[in-house]
Design brief:
Layout lengths: L27 H6 L1 H8 L3 E5 L5 E4 L2 H6 L3 H4 L10 H17 L3 E9 L5 E11 L7 E8 L1 H23 L3 E6 L2 E5 L1 H7 L3 H4 L10 H15 L7 E7 L6 E13 L2 E10 L1 H19 L3 E5 L5 E4 L1 H7 L3 H4 L13 H14 L1 E9 L5 E12 L5 E10 L1 H23 L3 E5 L5 E5 L1 H4 L4 H4 L12 H16 L3 E9 L5 E12 L5 E10 L1 H67 L5 H16 L4 H6 L4 H11 L4 H8 L3 H15 L8 H7 L1
Antiparallel strand pairs: 1-2, 1-5, 3-4, 4-5, 6-7, 6-10, 8-9, 9-10, 11-12, 11-15, 13-14, 14-15, 16-17, 16-20, 18-19, 19-20
Amino acid sequence: MKNSDDNSRSDSQGAAVPGHPDSGTEGSNLADSGLLQALIESVVDVIQIVDDSGVVRYVSPSCMQTLGYAPEEMVGKGTAAFMHPDDQASVARDLELLKESGESIQIENVRLRHKDGSWRTFEGVLRDCLTVPCVNGIVIDYHDITEYRNAEKALRESEAKYRALVEDIQDGVFIIQDNKMVFVNEAFANIVGYTAEQIVGMDFQSLVAPEDLEIVADRYRRRQAGEDLPREYEFRTLHKDGITRVMVNMSVGIITYNGKVASLGTVKDITERRRAEEQQRLLSSIVQQSSEGIALVDLHGKVLFANNAFAEMHGYTPEELLGQNLAIFHTSEQMLSVDAANRQIKETGEFKDEIWHVRKNGVVFPTLMHNTLLRDKSGNTIGMIGTMRDITERKQAQQALWKSELRYNDLARNIPGMIYRGRTDWSCELIYNSETIYGYTPKEITSPEMRWADIIHPDDRDRVFREALEISEEPGSIIQEYRIIAKDGVIRWVEDHKSSRFSGSGDYEGVDGVVFDITGRKQSEDDLRGKTEELRKKHDALTEKNIALRQVLEHIDSEKQTYQQQMSRDLEKALVPFLRKLKEEAPPTRISEFEALEITLDAILSKDLDDFERRYVRLTSRESEVCGMIKNGDSSKQISEDLNLSLLTVQKHREQIRKKLGITNKRISLATYLRSH
C-alpha cells in the first residue's frame, strides 16, 4: 500500500497524524476533541504506522525520549533502517504473517538502534489497520524493555554466579525451613552420602548423629525463636549408611526464604582435621612421653623445643632450655667432636654417632645422637631436629660385657675340654680348645670343608646321630660317649655334654656343648675291669678254700667236741669218786670245802662246750671268711688285697668278730684264740 498525501498531513513536528480534521469525517469528532492527540503524545511507548512495504508513515513523539530521534527523522524511512540486522528477518516474517491472518502478533526482543548508536530492546504488538480509513497502515506499538532485559540478564548472571559459587564451594550449604531441608548443594550431599535431590524434603534431624541430636535440635528451636546463640559449633552428622559419623563445623544464621523464616548455613567436613588434630595431640604426647630426648633448634643453634626426656637428661626443665644455645650441653673439650658432627650434618644432612654431653651439675655422660636437618615445604633449611639417648648404662653394660668376655675367654681357655656351638648339619660355628682333643685348630674345624660328623669314629657315628635326634625335636640335653679320630689318626674317647638350641619361632638351630677327653678314664675303666675280673677269680678261689677250710674246721670241731665229752667222762670217773671219798674222810670242819669243790667240778663238767660254736655262727659270711683267713695266719693287708677291701673295713670286721665271740681282753690275740678253739 502506498502512502497518500491526500489522506494525511504533517503536524507541527512533521509527522502525519491520523485522525486529523482534514483526514475525513470518521475521526473528526475525536480529533476535534483533541483526545486522541493528547493520548498519543502522553504514552511512553513508541507507536509507529508503516505501510505494507514497511516504510514509516507515522511515529509518536515518544520516539524522541525513547530512541533519541525526532519523529521527522524516522518518517519516510524503512523500519529496517533502525532495526538490528539479526532481528530484521523475524520482524519481516511477522509482518507477512500479519497480512495473511489479519490477527495481532506479539513481537519480543526486537532491538532498535538509539541515535547514540546503542541498541535498545523492545517488545510490542503488530496490528493490521490497512483497511481502516483513518489509519490505512500497520500499527506497531513498541514498549522499551531494555532496562528490564538488562536487569533480567544481570539477575540471571548473578544467579548463575552465586549458584556456581554455591555449587562449586567445597563447604556444604543448606537451607532449613519448618524442620525440612529445602535446599542443599552437592558438597553438603557428598558429606552425608546422599544426592541433593534425595535430601530436599528430608527432616534435618535424620541427618544428625543420635548422640548429638538433642543439642542440635535444641539450638535450632531456640534460634528459630529469636534467641541469640553462637553461629558456629561442631557436631556429628549421620551418613547414609547409618553407621559412619562425619564431624562437621556448622555456621548458621536466620534468613527470610519465600516469605518465611528459615535457617541458612554452611557445614565443613572437619573429620580429617579432627583426626589430624588427634594425631598431632598423640604425636605430641608421644614426643613428650618418649624416653628418648628430642630437641629442635634453629639455624643459630638456639633451642626452639625440648621434650621432658631431653631436659631431664641434662638436669633442666623444658622451659629453662627455650632460647638457650646448644653450647650449654657441652664442655670445651667436647666441642671438637661437636663441631665435626655439625660439619657432617651440613654436608650430608644427617649425623648419627656417639657424642658426650654435660649436665647442668657438670657431670658428663655419653649419648647416642641422631640429628637431621629440618626443611620447609620449599626445601629450605630452617633448623635441626635431634634425638638422643643416654647410653651411660649401655656403656657400663658394654664394659661389664667386655670384662665378662675376658673372663669367659679365660674360662673357656682354662676349661679342660672343648667348647663348641654346632649347626643342624653337624658343622661347627664356634669352638674353643679343639687342639688339645682333636688336634685341629678352631679355624680348621669351623671351615666349610669340615664337619663335626667327619671326626666321629665310623662305628659310633650312627648311634651318636640317633641319640642326638631326641633333642632336635624339643629342647633338651644329653651326654654322649663316643670315639673320635684326631688329626694325627689317634682314636680317643670323648664325653659330649650337649643341649639343643631353638629360635624364638621354635625352629631347631643346632646344639651348644662341651667335650671332655675321657680316653684316660676309659683306659682306667678297662684296667679296673681287668683287675676286677682277676679279683673275682681270686674271690672264687678263696671261696673254694673257705669251703674246704670250713669242712676241716667242722671236722676238727667235731673231734674236739668228742674229745671234750670223753675228757668230761674221764674226769668224772677219776675225780668224782675221789672227791666223795675225801669228803667222807674229811673232818666236819672241812666238809663245806669239799662241797664247794664238788659244785665247781660239777659246773665244769656240765658246762656247754659248744658255747664257742654258738657265738661263731652269729658271724656274717664275710666275717667268717675273715676269721678263716686270720686263723690261717693272713695279715690285715693280705686280707685287704685278696678281698678287695680297704684296711679300715678289714679292721672293722676284726672288731665285730672279737665282739661277737666275747673276746673282751685286748691282750688275747684273735688269731691265737681262733686257733685254740
